Amino acid sequence: MTAWERSEFRRARLRVSVLVGLAITVMIAFVGAIAYTVMVQAQQTEVSRELRYNIAYGVPGVAPKCAWVFVLEDGVLDVGPFEVPGGFPLRPDIDAVHTTGTAVPRDVTANGTEYMVLTSPGTDGTTVQAVFDLRYQLADRAHLLWALAIALAAGLLVAALIGFGVGRRTVAPWAEALARQRRFLTDASHELRTPIARAYLRAQLLAAAADLPDSQRSNLDALARSIRGLADVVDDLLQSAQLDPRDAKPVDLADIAEAAVVGETERAAERRITLALDHPGHPLVVDGIETGLRRAVDELLANAVRHTPEGGRIAVSVRSVDGQVELVVADNGEGFAAADAEGLFERFRHGPGEGRFGLGLALVREIVTGHGGTVSAAGRPGGGARFTLRIPVAGRRAAERERISSACP
Ligand SMILES: Nc1ncnc2c1ncn2[C@@H]1O[C@H](COP(=O)(O)OP(=O)(O)OP(=O)(O)O)[C@@H](O)[C@H]1O
Ligand SMILES: [Mg+2]
């Protein structure tokens, strides 16, 4: 398994554990919120009942636990013989109730605790104020919150462990399947290369034999070309199986563009196609896998040469834009419908009547997106094609270096 795959699988495991953890956390938080709300409601109902009872039957001299009763009778306020918490009684409320005859409930925060206060008309023209100190209820609530927090932390830990285990089990078969597929791909490509190279050589030798009739010679040439196409596909498969992010290093895209142009010069000249290269004359460096990037640029240029008629023109340009290196391959060849542009990057997608495989652009996109970049196509039928590739300049990617790895499935 490549480093990229390992990190992808680690990420997948992490995602699963985070999701399981999140689900358990939400569950505990939900249950906790319900428990807390029910508890607060129950306490408030209980204390309200107590206050009403004290209003009806409470006497200042008889002290219930955490409660006080004050009675205004004939203009005299009886606060009882016990020590009264600071700020009480609430005289304005007593006077207001005495005047209006309407009960006034109130929550008061004072003396480091909370009080529920009910001021109400009493019997025989009195006005009664009942006060209840909520400190024990508050302590109970705090205990419940602590218990919930501890349950949450324990739940999270258990969730992480469960998630990790579940993630491992979920991802392991995929990892194994991928590793097997990669092994198969690499082995098969390796095995196929030699016989294909031999077949190509034989076809060429046969085609070069002096005593062959022309029709057979052209058939053998066609056979050699087909075998070469097959060799290209096998190379692509091998390339995509072998790209490894550990090979990433600073790569000069201007240099790669130049090499690609040099590589196609002969083929372009045969068809009188003008090849122009435009770059600023200094290195335009990205962090990447050189073989992959070479393959991508070569493919864009090879496609352009293939789809540009004799006497056409292909322009390759490289420049730096907004922290990215932009490489454009534009031709004035046959082009394609704008609506088809995105589809060209799909595997096995090729134009009508083409004997190729339709793998090139798919591989280009795989490589480029793996370098944290983008590749797009624009074209018009008969109006040429333009492929734009953008990759973050070297260094800028240090933070997201990990993403390079997605070039290497
Ligand atoms: N420069 C271009 N101008 C016009 N059409 C293009 C150009 N480049 C690519 N295409 C279209 O996109 C299709 C897909 O290209 P791609 O490179 O993926 O496959 P291919 O060249 O047909 O086969 P392969 O690259 O696997 O040998 C091509 O078949 C062609 O129809
Ligand atoms: Mg191609």
Descriptive tags:
12 strands; binds adenosine-5'-triphosphate; alpha+beta; five-stranded mixed β-sheet; 7 helices; disordered C terminus; five-stranded antiparallel β-sheet; 52% helix; 409 residues; Heat Shock Protein 90; binds magnesium ion
Which secondary structure elements does this structure contain, and how are they paired or packed?
Layout: H1 3-57, E1 67-73, E2 76-78, H2 91-100, E3 104-110, E4 113-121, E5 127-133, H3 135-208, H4 214-242, E6 249-252, H5 253-270, E7 274-278, E8 285-288, H6 290-306, E9 313-321, E10 324-331, H7 360-370, E11 374-379, E12 385-392
Parallel strand pairs: 7-9
Antiparallel strand pairs: 1-2, 1-5, 3-4, 4-5, 6-8, 9-10, 10-12, 11-12
The structure holds adenosine-5'-triphosphate (ATP) and magnesium ion (MG).
Question: How would you describe this structure to a colleague?
Answer:
This protein has 409 residues and is of the alpha+beta class. The protein has a domain at 245-407: Histidine kinase-like ATPase, C-terminal domain (Heat Shock Protein 90, 2-Layer Sandwich), CATH 3.30.565.10. It is built from seven helices and twelve strands. The chain is elongated and about 135 Å long.
Strand order of the largest sheet: 2-1-5-4-3
Give the CATH topology of the domain at 245-407. Heat Shock Protein 90
What average pLDDT do the residues reach?
85
Overall strand count:
12
- The level-1 CATH class of the domain at 245-407: Alpha Beta
What structural class do helix, strand and pairing data support? alpha+beta
Range of strand content: 15-25%
Q: Please compute the radius of gyration using only Cα atoms.
A: 41 Å
Q: Name the CATH homologous superfamily of the domain at 245-407.
A: Histidine kinase-like ATPase, C-terminal domain
- Give the helix level as a range of percent: 40-55%
- Characterize the largest beta sheet: strand count, sense, and whether it forms a barrel: 5 strands, antiparallel
Question: What is the 3D form?
Answer: elongated
Number of helices: 7
Q: How would you spell out the order of helices and strands?
A: HEEHEEEHHEHEEHEEHEE
Beginning-to-end CA distance, first to last residue: 10 Å
